[in-house]
Design a protein that fits this description.
The protein is mainly α. The chain is about 45% helix and about 0% strand.
Length: about 60
Amino acid sequence: MSWLFNLLSGLVAVLISAALLHFGGSAGATPHDPAPASQPDNTGMPDGTPAEDDASRQS
């Protein structure tokens, strides 16, 4: 009966070790957040400076 208990406890230890290796370590670790995606420019403004004809109409 003792060998059966040793076998089962060893199997449980192997399963726990494999789960920790698979899922990345300690349970207290914070999850890795993915890097934030760059936000698109939603201002509606054209890129760069206005063309010369647009600047002449502004005055």
